[in-house]
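G.,

No rush on this.
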Amino acid sequence: IKTDKTHSSGLTHSREKSPQHDFTHEQNRGMVTLLMNKLLERYLKKAITEDLTEKMVFIGGPRQVGKTTFAMTFLNKANEKHPAYLNWDDVLVRSKLLRGELPVNENLIVLDEIHKFAQWRNLVKGFYDTNKLQTSFLITGSARLDYYSKGGDSLQGRYHYYRMHPFSLPE
């Protein structure tokens, strides 16, 4: 739909206006799922897929580069409600994690923003050491996940670290 608008200065300009779409919540959700399934494969996908069979994988990087969206591509039919997607910002998830509860029968657990917890290294180490034979762990966050300050148990030798950047030219 094309509309013309006259400015107070007397100048007229044309603007394309898209038709109004009223989609139901389910239709919107379906489109998001379709887009997630059709997402461009990121440059780290193959390497991380291989590394998840050996150790934990940490994905760090600047905000808004797609770390969480990328991590969800490793989960089957993923969305924020997937049982294996655990976001520290969710109060209910946080309390379960602090009680040592992980979802059962999940081959991969995604821990998002867990670095916001001061003792996250010890928590993740405990989860990994007791579940590594049946579960892979993918940890995402904007903080330097590979940086260790004083205190906390070392995770050395238990993870591969990747830094995600915005889309590259080939992508």
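When you get to it, here's the other one too:
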Amino acid sequence: SGAPMPYRFRVKAFAADGSASSATTALILVDVAAPLTGVQNVVGNGSNRCGIVDGGSVWCWGEARLGALGNGNDAGPDKCPNGVACSRVARPVIGVGGNGTLDGATSITVSGSTFCVVRLDHSVVCWGDNRYGALGQGFTSVAADPVEARAVGPDVVEIAGGYDAGAEKRG
């Protein structure tokens, strides 16, 4: 903790037409331009990473698909080598309702392109892919804005994700 940590993320290599059906199995490594300092925990999938830094703020980088950056949209400030919107710089996740930045995180997990954190007050906040209702909100659209998960109890201390399931640990 404290020393800058360089990270990389992978993106799929697409054919010249950029269509998903032309995606190859080749992956391109993309360096993160500005390493984070004070990193406590980092989780990720094949194309995205999010981490908690000292003080409990949450930062993400990688491909901008399915709201995985927690920046309120599917756009990224950069283009990755495969032409997909991404962020090559770790950026703070916005707060619930688009207010400020997400803070108070004590643990983080990822399941596919759905990211969730447990906060100091034991609430669970999630963002990203919600096509199957993974965010516990009663809707199935992508949530690029972090939302409080309603399907968990009030005393969660840790959360874990899998490919299509999650679990919580209560205190």
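The radius of gyration is 16 Å. The chain has no helices and 13 strands.

Enjoy the weekend,
O.
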